[in-house]
Structures are given as C-alpha cells and as structure tokens.
Fold:
Amino acid sequence: MMVRIVGLGPGDADLITLGSLEALRAAGRAVTLLAPPELVLFLESEGVEIVRDGITEPALFVRGSRDAIDAFVRALDGRDLALGVLGNPLSDFPGLPLLLRELERAGARTELVPGMSRATLAAAIAMPLIPLPPASAHYTWPDLVEVMARLRRTCPWDREQTHATLVPYLIEETYEVADAIETHADAELCEELGDLLLQIVFHAQLATERGKFSIADVIDGLSNKMIRRHPHVFGDQAVSGVAEVWRNWEQLKALEPSAQKRRSRLDGIPLGLGALQRGQKMQDKAARVGFDWPSHDGVRGKLAEELAELETARRENDTRAVREELGDVLFTLVNYARALGIDAEGAMRDANAKFDRRFRYMERRAETAGRSLGDLSLDELEELWQLAKAQAA
Structure:
C-alpha cells in the first residue's frame, strides 16, 4: 500500500503543481484536508476520486492530533491512497512527522510530493493571491517568488519556458554580471544581479510546479552546504590560512553524497564553461594532488616546446596536427597564467576589451577623416593602431 502525501498549494486550482496533480492521478483516489470546494471539484474533473469521509476531524489531523491520525491509519484498507494537504506538506502540515511514523508502523509505503508553500506565496485558503505592494514600495523575497508564480500563471511567454529553454538566458545573464563587475559599473551590477537572480527563481518555480523542489529547498541546501564546508567559521576548527581552507574544502566535498558518485577528480567541472576557464579548473584540480610544475621555468620551457611543435606541424601543412598543437599551446598558456596567479579567462576578456576599445578608436579616426578602415593601406592601419594604443589604452 502506497500513501502519497501531496501538497495542494494555496487552494487555487490554477496553482496546483503538475507534479502534485500527476501524483493524485497515479493514486486514483484521495482524501483532501480542508481543501476549498472549487479545488475538490477541479480534482474530480481531472479524474481523481475524492474520498469525502476519510477524515472526520481534518483540522485536528493537520495540527497533529494523535487520535485523529491513529483513526486515519486504522481505517486504511490496503489500497493506494493520496492525502492532499493545502500548501506544502513539508512546511504547512505540523502533523506530518507523527503521520509518517504511524504509517511506517502500519507497513505502508509513503511518498512526499511538495506543493507551493502557502506562506511563500502569501496566500490564504480559497482566496486569490494578495495584491502586490504598489510600485513605490520595497519588495520582499516572498514578493519576488509571488511575482514569478504569477508570471508562470498568466504570461504566455513565461508559461512556455522549460529548464532547457532558459539555459541561454542563464548563461547570458551570468556574463552580463561579469561585464558589470569588470567595468566597475555598480548601478549596472545591481540590475544584472537581479536579472541573474530571476533566472534562479524561474528555475526553482519550474521545479516547484513539477513537485521536485522549491526555492526554499535551494536556500536550505546552499546554507547547509556552506555551514558544512566551513567548520572554521561555524564550528571550532582552526585553520592557518587560505591553503588549509582549500584542503579542508576538498576533503569535506569528498565526503558528500554527490562526490561519492564521481570516478575522477575532474568530474564536476561543467562542460559548458569557457575553454580557458575549464582548462584552468582542470589544472587546479590536478595541482592539488601534486601534478604540477615545480616552478615557472618548467611551464615556460613547455610553452617553448609546444610552440616548436606547432611550427613543425605548420611547415608540414598538417591541418589536424596544427589544430592539436595550437590547442596544446593554449592549454600551456593557461597553465602559465595559473602559475602566475592570473585568471586566464579574465585576462582574455581584458584583452578582448582592449582590442575593442582600440579598434573602435581607429574606426572613429578614419570616419572623422572621411574614410573607412577598408580603404586604408596596411601602413596607414598600423599608424592608426599605434595612435589607438597611445590614446585608447
């Protein structure tokens, strides 16, 4: 016998998650606790059989009355059943721990299906979401979560999105945050951090609707991870410096369940990272087990060796070998950047920005003279480039 304890959300049929609805349908029949009539009728229209006499004192049951819970468990007939709870059973059902213990004693299997938390959405039973504060007011974290829930409920574009379709926006917003930081634009940084935060809330909302996890779970998981990995801050462990913090961090990560599934120290480095950034992270991981050059001289020697191999491949007109050797040169340059304590990806972004400034300067100077860069000779272009280096460094 399976008893699914399913979150029904704030009580509005439009806000019940897809995961909750699927769980109720899978059970076939359900007892609903304090659900408004409109929600009950909606569930019946979706093919869920509602058991109307399953719990005689639902308010006491929700609060964790032992008598009410014992009576419910004794009445179970061995068939699968869903128990619909307003909000999220993990946060809005005080009687959940006692019910789970009694179901375990009775030999029943259980499954928890989260729903939209009533507190998070600032909603009441059988009532629509409360109006958002006026535009002149300061918004709160629950307001932001509610904004996202409303967007998913009413905006055609937002309703069409999935985790996969949002990936390009997540990457774009991350780079825009980096741009704002590198240009020291505080106002833009504030705005871009908001755009990035929206992506996080958006993905959490999608997961909530599928009954997988909520933004509260994201926050709980992150907070627990940070506390667990910083015993020198939240515990009594002493550290001598940054190097020891890193060693402890790696050791603590290795004990976590996700790390137990990894077969290599290089597992967990995202494939979607920029090539320079991913190369540097791999080299960092390797260096932490001693696979590293003992000095800068070794890296410089390796760079000279790779450049010579690249030149040999070029002379032999071996296209595939040229590509491979060029990759080795770039990888070694990243290693050299790491040895110097420089972020290779950041250094490349700086170089790109510098070229952008100088090239635009050349374009402006040519335009002022009534010409385009394409009309200039190589010597004239070089003269403009030297001027750009002096004026637009």
Q: What stands out?
A: Residues 141-227 form a domain with the Helix Hairpins fold (CATH 1.10.287.1080).
